[in-house]
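Cast an eye over my tokenised protein here and flag anything odd:

===
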Amino acid sequence: MQDNNNISSFEANDQRIIENKELNLLEALIPVVILMGLLAYNIFFVEDQEWFGTYTNQIILIMGGAVAAVVGFFNRVSLSLIIKEIWENLKSVFVPILILFLVGALAGTWLVSGVIPAMVYYGLQVLNPAIFLPACVVICALISIATGSSWTTSATVGIALVGIGTALGIHTGMIAGAVISGAYFGDKMSPLSDTTNLAPAIAGTDLFTHIRYMTITTVPTIIITLIIFAILSAATETSGSADLSNILETIHNTFNITPWLFLVPLAVIALILMKTKPLTALTVGVVFAAIFAFIFQANILNSLGDSKLGSVLTSVLTDTQIATDNEKLNELFSAGGMKGMLWTIYLIVSAMIFGGIMDGIGALARVTKALLTVATSIFGLFASTVISCLGLNAIASDQYLAIVIPGKMFKKAFDDKGLAPENLSRTLEDSGTVTSVLIPWNTCGAYQSGVLGVDTLSYAGYAFFNFLSPFTTLLFAALHIKIRHLKGELKSKLT
């Protein structure tokens, strides 16, 4: 789902899982308990959540990694192996980090070129506040199905929808939750998505059997999600028409608003639909926006710096603030450029270091194997797989590992129970793919938070599709609804 930029299906399928017979379960959990404890302390007891300054979460992840390394040394794990696994993890996020830098540049140039203001200006007139949140879900779902990427969806229409919703006075957590719910539904169901290809490859089924089988749990979940957002939209008070009129007038007076500005996002979406590499598509989006800034927003560029070129370069690299007469718009019309992505990038790097050490000492495999031993029934098997995926999203900080490791570990167990492989592939997606965005230090959570400008904990409670999906798959398993068995298996296997 990360635009085929992290681990390809083939590489992930061939990844070796490091096991360490010297390591027991208690030792494997020590770094996890310490990490969760420090993070919880920071969230609940530290004012402004800046225990160690701006980069508190990053430092806590590094501390957890150091504890894991000590545990590894006591269990005969060599330093070279740990360093190798850290390096493998860091290599896997090199392209996503480049994408984050480009997204920062995109946000800056789309602001000074008038692209984002134009989206907000026309969006406020088109999107009815009474159905805004479910409309966000549907729009993002359609874009994500077409592109196969929740990341791209958030970086394009997601940013615009957050801007429109903010101008309407809707809570940003609600907006981001709706964007993410739709984006991950579309990503999960798209044949172009890399996780949608990866899960059946790991489980041993084919792509379209996997997608058809996913509809059994995914469609009810997205319907429930739409109903909840429809209720929230109806119950949420938005800005009145007078305030909206003032916002529209302020945008029109500040920027040169024209439909021609939509050529920039349309060009990016078209390139992605043509399967152009995301780095190329986003670079084109930055360059086009810069050109359009010179053409349409000369007054804005003159007001921001001594030269138009200098103003564009500033929007690419660092903070940009466009002042208006409306306080709400002042917050909206600001961007951090590439510099604004550094916090997120440092978080991803720290998470990859922690995950690499945990993998290197064999802790990830040990925890997963422990879950496998308690899977004595069919429901227990599904539940163990879900818990394993959720845990690895938090521990390994990477959704690919949350699919690959449980997929490899549980594949034989599903087969032994006479269950068709699409049961496993669906469960991996229902619990591994969609919950990654709910973990602040997971690559997906860090990315979405950085791109949308909304803290992970602010949107997590509103990302209904994402946190309901594991419960749906467990409910269907508990009630034995649409649990497909291998051909010729006896129905008595259910007990």
Notes: Residues 15-94+342-494 form one domain. The two ends are 36 Å apart (CA to CA).
